[in-house]
Give the backbone structure.
Amino acid sequence: MKKLILFGAPGAGKGTFAGRIKEINPNIPHISTGDIFRHNLKEGTDLGKKAKEYMDKGALVPDEVVIDMVRDRLHQDDVKKEGFLLDGFPRTLPQAMALSEITDIDKVIVLEIEESVIIKRILGRYSCKECGAIYNKFFEATRPKKEGICDKCGADLKFEQRADDNEETIKNRLKAYEDNAKPIIDYYEEKDIIVRVDATKTLEYSQEEIKDFIN
């Protein structure tokens, strides 16, 4: 049973690397804060209602509410049995410190990648509206095998860029990530549980190499 954090900038490929880890351990719950939020909002839980109050005002959901949602998820049976792969949390040092009070962490996998590559990844990405498969027009390995056709479900594909996906916005997001990431990484460095991964080679790593990262 492993308790892992997947850490990296927007566009570093956390979802792709999580998929590689699940090839090795299909039962490990891949937990993202986005999924936790959507579940609590959909189910109308007390935590979901608290979060919605802030979201309806256009305000950030405070750390204590986010932490309570994560705590609730980490206490569920599948996590107790299989461990977890936590993606998108912690995002601040107080969240990291609160997480340490909830559970021990085995490894923090930090995906490292140059800014120029991240910008191409984000500006070139698009997904299938039918099945959600993700593609990128700038990288051969992530283009559909047949132009305009989804490899997974055969639906028609069209490159459409999100309105907020432009170079200036991406650089601002990366700057915000770096400002928050350094104290979090320093915190886990002191615990000697950081593993650094070259995220430009995510699809090239063998299963044995990925096992080395997580064990």
